[in-house]
Amino acid sequence: MNSDVIRLADEAATLPRPLVGVLVGGASRAHRFGRVEAEDLAARLSAFAACHETGLLVSTSPRTGARVTAVLRERLAHTPHL
């Protein structure tokens, strides 16, 4: 097994259960997804995780962008996630 996969599995094992997968896209012609939207999403995800006592598995896409990904990472710092 790849060492990165093992590391991720070990980190995920420490998260509260159940785990909720979150796939994050990015801006499109029809929709904005910048800092404001990322902050709102992170706040909603944090509230959801706290309310349901769950861990989050968050995956971004290339369209998400580095700045938005950094906002999500910063805003989810105190929420159990990977």
What do you see in this structure?
The chain has 82 residues and is α+β, with helices and mostly antiparallel strands. The protein is 48% helix and 15% strand. It has 3 helices and 2 strands. It has a two-stranded parallel sheet. β1, α2 and β2 form a beta-alpha-beta unit. α2 packs parallel to α3. The protein is globular, with a radius of gyration of 13 Å. The model has no long low-confidence stretch (mean pLDDT 95).
How would you describe the shape? globular
Rounded to the nearest angstrom, the radius of gyration is 13 Å
Please write the string of helix (H) and strand (E) elements. HEHEH
Question: Can you summarize the main beta sheet?
Answer: 2 strands, parallel
N- and C-termini, Cα separation: 19 Å
| SS element count, helices | 3
Average pLDDT: 95
Strand content: 5-15%
Provide the helix percentage: 40-55%
Helix vs. strand class: alpha+beta
Lay out the secondary structure.
Layout: H1 3-13, E1 19-24, H2 35-52, E2 55-60, H3 66-75
Parallel strand pairs: 1-2
Helix pairs in contact: 2-3
List keywords for this structure.
single chain; 82 residues; alpha+beta; two-stranded parallel ribbon; 3 helices; 15% strand
Task: Characterize this entry briefly.
This protein is an alpha+beta fold and 82 residues long. The protein contains 3 helices and 2 strands; from the N terminus they run H-E-H-E-H. Helix 2 links the parallel strand 1 (19-24) and strand 2 (55-60).
